[in-house]
Amino acid sequence: MKNIILAAGYATRLGELTKNFPKPLLKIGNNTILGRMLDDIDTIDDITEHIIVTNHKFAPIFKQWAAEQHYSKPITIVDDGTETNETRLGAVNDLLLVLNTPPKQGESEGVLVVAADNLLFFSFQEFVDFAKAKGTSCIMCHEQPSIEKLQRTGVVELDANNKVLGMEEKPQVPKSHWAVPPFYIYLKKDLDLVRHSVENGCGKDAPGNLAHYMVEHTTMHAWPMSAGRFDIGSLDTYYEAVEKYGK
Which end of the chain offers a freer environment for a tag, N or C, measured as fewer CB atoms within 10 Å? Predict the structure, then answer.
């Protein structure tokens, strides 16, 4: 199973801090945001490779960082060729760039797809085990009591066995309190669906666009996160993360 990290955004909400530097490589204490995530994912036996999709502007920085790492699984940096926020391909197209580029070894079980701007307080091993037990492609979910926050994210309805019954993006009237963070497992049997998603009408900007598309075209389950996460989306949240978790 390949671990595909979507890191081609320009993090414009962080201003000068990320004007010429990628958000996933910002420091939280002695480690980077991305490094904290890979420290966990690299220990999963099913993972064969880490593939980081970035833009042309930040690719040299990621390559230099990767050359200094000592993970047990190889790191590959993929440059999507864009240089500005206005010309970005979109997260779904960045994923397709990887899936449509040979060689395709490591897909015998599928792909783990993650956004690289969160601090997580659980192990992805639990998510991988859940997907293997269900035998379907999977998303994550967590309870979100705030209607205002639910209106800004993906929301799913689940049955008693955590099968996804439906998903809405940024609903004005959410049908549940299950919010969807940007972490996914797409099994090999569904990868052709993924590869043809954009040409068949799937939105391309956010990874949640693909999750929504896949829920409508195949059976998926949702793993309720066993612990929390901290989403770093602004200067305020970055400095809060440094203060809380960087000591």
Answer: C
